Amino acid sequence: FLFQRDHFCQITMRILISNDDGYFAPGIAELAQALSEIADITVVAPERDRSGASNSLTLDRPLTWHRAANGFHYVNGTPTDCVHMAVTGLLAELPDMVVSGINSSSNMGDDTIYSGTVAAATEGCLLGLPSIAISLAGHDSKHYETAAWVAGELVQRFARAPFGEPVLLNVNVPDVPRESLQG
Description:
- The chain is about 30% helix and about 25% strand.
- It has 5 helices and 9 strands; from the N terminus they run E-E-E-H-E-E-E-H-E-H-H-E-H-E.
- The protein has helices at about 25-35, 80-90, 110-115, 115-125, 145-160, and strands spanning about 5, 10, 15-20, 40-45, 65, 75, 95-105, 130-135, 170-175.
């Protein structure tokens, strides 16, 4: 998959992936796998579960950046810290997009105020990047591959027809097999 910036030059899209469940969560692994097939990805996520961290920044201690054995990066801070650190200086090249998730439960209504998943995407948007928060809407969190497929479809749609300004999408995918999706 190539992100076409003009008709003479094609550049692979760069995506920053984050979450609030931590770099070891099954949702982020599934998302990274799916998006790595269509883009260059970098994963920067919290070192531990930071669900409910909202848009908080860590101001009371130094933040550290590490690389895990699986190639993912992790930070001893919040999801917002992860995206902020990555975009404002730790990545050699700015990403074209931020994708956060896959959260293991839905983010709707008041949940979006507290969600670290949505906060990571919000930080990307505030830093001028189109951003997507992806969550599974269900109780058992079985079908991460369905949500990862939806994320890939949205990224490809964005690449074909980008918005004129940064946008934040909060997407809740039913926790069902892909063939059971309707609409």
